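Example record for the data management plan.
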Amino acid sequence: MTSTHSATAPAAPPWRLFSTTAHLAFLGTFGIAAFGLLVGFAAMSVGFIALAGIGLVMLVGVVYVLYGIGWWETARVAGLYRLEVPLPHFAAPPEPGFKGWLYSLGNQLLSGRMWRALSSAFIASVLGTVQIVSLSLALWGLALLLLRFTGWGAGWIISPFTGSTELVGALLVTLVGLALAIALALLHRVLTTAIIGGGAREEQLEAHARASSAQRAGAVRAADVERTRIERDLHDGVQPRLVSVGMTLGLAQETIDSDPEAAKELVAEAHASTKAAITELRQLARGIHTSVLDDRGLDAALSALASRSHIPVTLDVDLPGRVNRDAEAALYFVIAESLTNAAKHSRASSCRISVRLLQDPHPVLWARIDDDGIGGARVVPGGGLDGISNRVFAAGGTLTITSPEGGPTTVEVHIPCAS
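Corresponding structural encoding:
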């Protein structure tokens, strides 16, 4: 399931200028110093690399600190300007163990999203430093105005203005300081929302492109697996039976004159084999397309499927009505293949199927298939679980398989749909 988030900041109310000013003042006070300490620590870490590897441990700490700053900056900007952008996550290891952790660390160090957030924090710190100067000017101008009208602070406020120019100069300094503070707050908004929000939009587009590619690849693999299954069922089931029917009818034709009774038995045998072949063809056609699913919906189709299962099935379906037909078809075939796998490999004595329509926040067709078999189910290329995963991915859904050795096996499916 995918969703689109807006990364454009809404119109800022006037009070947000004060919040931005406070943010900039904070970053101007501590930001530059923090970045200076971090750069110094990183340089010291490089220098200590030759000292029993201590520098490497310090550099690992630097990576985690950089990630923390990037996370904090993203959360700060998103909260300040109401940006709907996801918070960054530390790069997941591609494989378990120390090697996977090293890859994760390297991927995080190369993360463009982290560096964009760091650049946003650094720019905000520089703007904050200038913001402190502008606020100091404004406060100084206000103090001069108070001095001009009240005479307070005559001993500690230094003023370059004298006489009649003092009022005009104090007012000008105050206005310039306030105008500069407001301009810096607006500039901060433009720059940080462009850096944080713009990067989020790019990542969303990339994620959507990757998801679309995965769906297309899953659809192609699912079609290949389905074609292979149909070919196998035809080759191993219907085709030999039809060949046997042809041979039996041929023997009956040869013996019909010399031994009519034997010929009748052969014809009866061919008739029984023909009915069995028709049954197999119906089952094969039902595996390709089930008419009851189109006519009566998923609940009825699953009830029919459960009644034909080789193992007892407890069916728990709670749907408000018909949903997206593509989602229904995908879930039906996932459940059908799961039951087939359970009957063939799991040695299960019972199976439970639960189906619900969730709102997460968009409609999602959810199903869980539990069996009490021996477990140990694994996704093997070309196997039944591979076909299930391909169908789910092609529908834009997610699949979770839990099957420890000794059982039980649980297959959980989420397929997006429109009700």
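Summary line stored alongside the record: Residues 165-255 form the longest helix (91 residues).
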